[in-house]
Structure formats: structure tokens, C-alpha cells
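QA checklist item 7 of 12: single-chain prediction sanity check.
[x] sequence parsed
[x] length recorded as 404
[x] structure emitted
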Amino acid sequence: MPEAAESNWNGPLAGVRVLDFTRVLAGPAASLALADLGAEVFKIEPPGTGDETRSFPPMRDGESHYYLAINRGKKSLVVDLKSEEGVALVKDLAVQCDVLVENYRPGVMDRLGLGYETLKAINPRLIYCSISGYGQTGPLKDRPSFDIVLQAMSGALSMNGEPDGLPTKLGIPLGDLVGGINGPIGILSALYERERTGVGRHIDVSLMDGLMGMLGYIAQLAFFTGKDPQRVGSQHPNLVPYGIFPASDGSIVIACLTPAFWGRVCRSIERPELTGDPRYDTLEKRRDAREEVNALVSAFTQRHTVDELVAIFTAQEVPHAPILGVTEALSQPQAAARGMVVETQHATLGSIPIVNRPIRFTDAPQPVPEAPPVLGQHTDAILSGVLDLSPERIAALRAAGVIA
């Protein structure tokens, strides 16, 4: 267990309360980041089913791998938002919270009576973050969207895959996960601004906007050339050698980004004379001679095992990596040294491994994250501790089906 288990410091957002109306992936990824940073996250779930991902297989003892992956450190509160009393409870909670995050389609929260203008009237300090596929405006705002749809619409999908094949979806659902990046950035910025102004604001996060923002130099290349960048598989459109190269027992990644690294590659493959070869001595020349350069490198790499190549390229400080499976990646020495996998105690599953927080604070370790909650695990504790409801009142609400 890493040293974080010995700390009682929850993180820099300790004391910040978040009302979480998110489900599936994009929204929960955003509230997960806030929980990781120490915020107290109240996840509002519907009676019976809860977040849809609670039923996504494979399951273990009734708990979904999917839900467990993106809901650590949160508190589950089951409220029926179709009832007036349920909406009233949530409004009372909104008064006590700093942030609200939701990822319903535009307009849903307004129809529930929980839109930004409504809650702003009762809590002007509330920072309200809406995450949706296409944003709150524009001709596509009401369309349903999922990760692969967003990858397609943003241009990202067109860039992924081998040149002679169909486009290939990114293995990581970045179209959704971008909400877990941009949502917290907007929220943290608004929290900082609120320190000066005393009021919150509405944040409109579009997942398609986020993926377009991640196009980066690819978008600028299209602006410069007026043409769509073409698929190059695992290679780079302008840097060579860069990509996956064969080994005698597998393959290895090599990334040659600068002229200095080209010299190191040449020494590694026992062809030091290629460093100043006029056919390959600039980035542009190597790009134009891509097949020749890759063939030179492959001729060397395919005669060696992956382990041998790792040793060779490490000695020459060439950026490289073996291609690890997920299980091997999670158990590698670097991940272990960083404490990226920890054990936590789940209410029904007992001790389970989870991925740890990706952001650390030097000399201020946080405790191991709390396990993802079972459905409604914290309903009574939140209503009594935050809203000061009596046991009798909570029992009456449960009997009426308002909470579960």
C-alpha cells in the first residue's frame, strides 16, 4: 500500500461540495476528477436502477466493472426526481453545494425544475457545469451522442487507422473522457473566479468541441495545406522513424522527434554513418524517404528480441517502449512505484483493486480513495448530515418512495 494510506489530507478541494447528476461516462469522469482532488461528491441516482452503468457486464456479485471504474470516492444518494418532494430535496442540497455537474441532454434539467437559472436564484454562488455531446447551442445540440459518434464528427476518427484500411475507433473512449478533462478545468477556473466575484456561473462543455480542441497541430496542418491529413497508422505524418517496428518476438515503439534523436537511433541500429547521410539529414528528407528509413530500422529491430531492443535503446536514450497489455502495464515497476493500483474496501465486494488518482501532491499524500458506492449507500447520511433531517422524516420520505 502506498504512503497515501497514512494521510488524512483529502486534497486541495476538501470542503468543496459537488452535486452530481451524471451518468454513464463523460459526466462521471468529470465528477471523478473532482472527487480525486478532495471534493465531497453527492451522486444523485434514480431509484431501482441507479446510474445505467451499474448494469453493464461483466459483473461481480451484482457490481459492474464499468461503474466501479469511474465512481470511486463518491457518495450515492437515491432520489426520485419525478416527485415534487424529490426535486425539493435536491434544491435544498443545491443551496449547500458549491458545484453541480450534469450530463443530460440540453433541456432535461430545466424540465426537471433543476436548470441553472432556477438553482442560481436560490444559490448565486453555485457553479453549474453542463456536459453534453454537442453543447447547449447549435443545430446538433439535441442529438444523442456516444464516443464513436463524437470521434467521427470531430475529425479524430478519420485520422486513426492504417492507410489502406477503414478508420479505426480510438481504443480509449477519448470522445467521452474529454469531458472529464475540460469539465474540471472549467469548474476549477470558476471556483477561482468566485473567490473574487462571490458568484458562480454556468459552464457549457461540448464533447465534440473538446475533441476538436485536441486535434492540435493536426488542425493547423489542415489549415496550412487545405487538405485532410491522411491516416498513417501508428506512424507520425511528419516525423520518421516514429511508430511500431518488428522484433523477433513481437514489436516495439520508437519515437524519433528531433535531429538529436536521429543520431541516437543511427548509433542504436549500428549505422552511425546514416546520421549525416545527405539523404536523411533533415526531418523533411526522412519524411519523404519514409519507407527507406523504416526499412533500415526494421532490418535491425527484427533481428533482436523486445528485451534486447529495450536495452539497446535505453543505453542510447532513444524514446521507445515495449507494447504492454493492460494487465502488464498496471503491474509494471513504474506503476508500482507510483502507487497507481491500490486496494480499497467496498461495501459488498470487500477488498478490491482500483486505479489510484493520477494527480499527486508532493509531500502531501492523500488517503487511498474510498470505493465506489453501492446504490443509495449514503442516502441517510447525506440527508441527516447535510440537511439535518430527522430519522422520522427520512423514514417518511422512504415510505413515500421519494428516496430509496
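[x] summary fact logged: The chain has 17 helices and 13 strands.
[ ] second reviewer sign-off
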